[in-house]
């Protein structure tokens, strides 16, 4: 007959600490997954207008509403800056749409080729980032020439969804 000694107090403390650490780890991992899902949804929502077929040409009514909200001189300044960069913005957008299509094709390819998928995702990211400097240049061209009232209106402007 095997006789076991009753658990000691130190064993109970170690077991309690182990359970607490495991629960902390579980909560941490769950929190990270929840956070990643939220970031993914934000990325999808920010890219949705471009991926859903809406493009800069479809956004013209929004630009017209912005122009209407600004004082006439400031609207003219912004309109001039936008029109000067519109071909480049449309080209950047089309490049991203083409790259996004390549990503969809890589996902649909059977069997999946992970290297091709990664390459197409990298290309899409690179294409998406080309619009940023164009928008920066547009803003740096127009905003310094605008009045304080126009800058205030622009900073508070929220386009209708």
Strand-and-helix sequence, N→C? HHHHHH
Per DSSP E runs of 2 or more residues, the count of β-strands stands at: 0
Integer-rounded radius of gyration: 27 Å
- How would a crystallographer describe the biggest sheet? none
**In terms of per-residue confidence, which ranges show pLDDT below 50 for 5 or more consecutive residues?**
50-55
Describe this structure in words.
This protein has 161 residues and is mostly helical. The chain folds into 2 domains: 7-52; 56-161. The chain contains 6 helices and no strands. It starts with 8 loop residues before the first helix and ends in a 5-residue tail after the last helix.
In brief:
The chain has 161 residues and is an all-alpha fold.
Characteristics:
single chain; mainly alpha; 2 domains; 161 residues
Furnish the topology, listing elements before pairings.
Blueprint: H1 9-51, H2 60-69, H3 72-108, H4 114-128, H5 131-142, H6 148-156
Helix pairs in contact: 2-3, 3-4, 3-5
């Amino acid at each position: 007959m095997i006789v076991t000694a009753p658990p000691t107090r130190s064993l109970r403390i170690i077991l309690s600490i182990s359970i607490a650490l495991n629960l902390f780890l579980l909560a941490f991992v769950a929190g990270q997954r929840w956070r990643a899902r939220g970031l993914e949804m934000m990325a999808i929502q920010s890219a949705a207008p471009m991926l859903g077929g809406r493009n800069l040409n479809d956004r013209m009514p929004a630009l017209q509403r912005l122009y209407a909200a600004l004082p006439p001189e400031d609207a003219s300044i912004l309109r001039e800056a936008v029109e000067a960069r519109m071909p480049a913005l449309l080209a950047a957008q089309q490049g991203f749409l083409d790259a996004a299509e390549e990503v969809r094709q890589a996902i649909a390819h059977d069997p999946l080729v992970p290297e091709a998928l990664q390459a197409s995702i990298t290309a899409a990211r690179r294409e998406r980032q080309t619009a940023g400097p164009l928008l920066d240049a547009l803003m740096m061209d127009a905003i310094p020439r605008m009045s304080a009232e126009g800058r205030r209106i622009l900073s508070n402007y929220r386009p209708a969804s």
